[in-house]
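Re: that chain you flagged

S.,

Sorry for the slow reply, it's been a week of failed gels. I finally had a moment to sit down with the sequence you sent. For the record, here it is as I used it:
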Amino acid sequence: MKYLFASTLLCLFSYSYSQTTPPEFDGIVKEEEWKDAQVFVIDHEINPGDNIPAPQNTTVYISYSPTDLYVVL
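Prediction finished late last night. Pasting the structure tokens below so you have them in one place:
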């Protein structure tokens, strides 16, 4: 299942979401580092609920380079 999820994420991208310079992993999400990333809002939970609205939304930024996949919550 996790491979299906990862494959689906990779298929969602186009070249426009590619990072030209890798982000700095310092624990701070800087807007300029993720300006070209694809943004997803996760507003449902599957555990412990069963596809019910989540009490708090989660924003996910996803991008990639030729060698890496970058995901930040």
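What I noticed first: The chain has one helix and three strands.

Talk soon,
D.
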